[in-house]
Structures are given as C-alpha cells and as structure tokens.
Amino acid sequence: MSGKQRFTSVWAREAARRRTGRGPTGLSRDQIVREAIALLDAEGADSLSMRRLAARLGSGATSIYWYVDNKEELLQLVTDEVVGEVNRMFAEPYGDAAHWREVASRYAYGLRDMILRHPWVAQQIGTRPNLGPNWLEMTARMVRSFQEAGFTGRDVDYAVGAVGAFVIGSALPEVAWRNGMAKMNMTEEEWVAACREELRRAGDEYPGLVAAYDEWTAQEDLSVARKVAFDYGLVSMLDGLEARLSGDRR
C-alpha cells in the first residue's frame, strides 16, 4: 500500500517568498507565470508541462525549477495570479466602503468573468487549499464586508461560501458547454441545433421541456441570456441573505 501524499504550498515555503527576482537564467517568476497563463489560455490545462513552458520562454526546464519544485506549485502560482483579476473589481469607486451587496456582486461577477476568461481554472478550483495572497485578500474582503453588515459567527462563513458556491456552480457548466463545443468543432448555433434535435427525439413525452428549450435558445444572444440568468440567481440569493440578516427567516 502506497504512503499518503503530502500537500505542499508554494506560498508556505520561505524560499518561494525569496525567489521573486530574476533567477540565474535571467527569467523572473512573473515572466514564467505570465507565459504559463498564456499557454493555458491558448491550449488548456492538459497542455502545461515544464518542457513546453520552457520552450516558449526560450530557456531550459531547469530554469523554472529555480522558482517552483514541481508543476503542482506552478499551478498554484498561475491560479492565484488570475484571481488577482477579481480583486481589481474591488478597486472601482467606493471600494471597501461599498454596501455588502455591492461587494458581493463585484466578487460574484468578477469571479464568473475570470473563470470564463481562463476556463482551465475550473479544473483547479477545489483541488487544493487556496493559500495564495490574491485568494486570501479576496476572501478576507468578503468576510470583512459581511461582518460589517452584521453577519456574525458561522453565518459569515455560510453566507460567503454560499455566494462563492453559486458562482462556481453557475460558471463550471458554462465552461463545460464551451469545452464540449470546442471538442466537437461546432459553433454555438450548430451545438444548439444538434441538442434541440436530440431533445425532441429523447423527450417526446415531455413537450413542455422541449418548448422551454426552444424558447430559451430562440433568444438573439445566448451569452446575454446567460448573464441575465446569472443575475437573477445572484439577486435572489442576496435577497435571501438580506432577509436572514434582517431576521425574517420564513
């Protein structure tokens, strides 16, 4: 029986905090992270290897190991880097002084947009503790905002977690939808038409569902329709949290 694997965080190692300048080969950690993100965005999570990344950087794979011990640590770095895009949503007017619903909305839309811009992140969420500075800053800002609004005790964790779970649960199927179209080399219009035909065959006993699908997919811009659906769910969730905050838990 093999022994248990030990989780290690690139952020917890003192060496990781020191290795932020240029290494012996002249590369910097920022360069490596940016190029890794570009590779992941272009070709997906399965494309990332130290050798391929080094080739894009015009260097040897050993140069990357000066900053990270393995690919797992590199994925920690790149994941936290793109989470920084969410934090920039909070830099807009009002900042920390914004109402908790505004903070939650910025977090939700920022997290959704980031996942859709970098769909490879979907495979990283939940696979390891998120200990990077950008993720911790994002979480701390949400917690602080909810506490200042009047949420207390475990309700803070539950409320923040509920918003995050809603966003991730909404975004991941959309990522899977896009990945499915890409693998089949189909446009969204072709994909929708194919699904409609299959639904009519498989769901002939459920005409209401077929009609609802036809009505949904008949909308002029499905990307806008998905945003509207996301907004509906988010507002409903925040309404529920506000009701609990005010004591109305019927």
Could you write a compact summary of the structure shown?
It is built from 11 helices and no strands.
Description:
With 250 residues, this protein is mainly α. Helix content is 66%, strand content 0%. The protein contains eleven helices and no strands. The chain has helices spanning 14-18, 29-43, 50-57, 61-64, 71-87, 100-117, 133-149, 154-184, 188-202, 207-217, 222-246. The protein is flat, with a radius of gyration of 22 Å. The termini are far apart.
List strands and helices in order, with pairings.
Elements: H1 14-18, H2 29-43, H3 50-57, H4 61-64, H5 71-87, H6 100-117, H7 133-149, H8 154-184, H9 188-202, H10 207-217, H11 222-246
Helix pairs in contact: 2-3, 2-5, 5-6, 5-7, 6-7, 6-8, 7-8, 8-11, 9-10
Kindly provide the radius of gyration, computed on alpha-carbon positions and rounded to a whole number of angstroms: 22 Å
Which consecutive residue ranges, at least 5 long each, have pLDDT under 50? none
Shape verdict: flat
The end-to-end distance, rounded to whole angstroms, is 52 Å
What is the H-and-E element order?
HHHHHHHHHHH
Please report the number of helical segments.
Answer: 11
The main pleated sheet reads as: none
Strand content: under 5%
How many strands appear in the DSSP assignment?
A: 0
Structural class: mainly alpha
Mean pLDDT: 87
Q: What is the percent of helical residues?
A: 55-70%
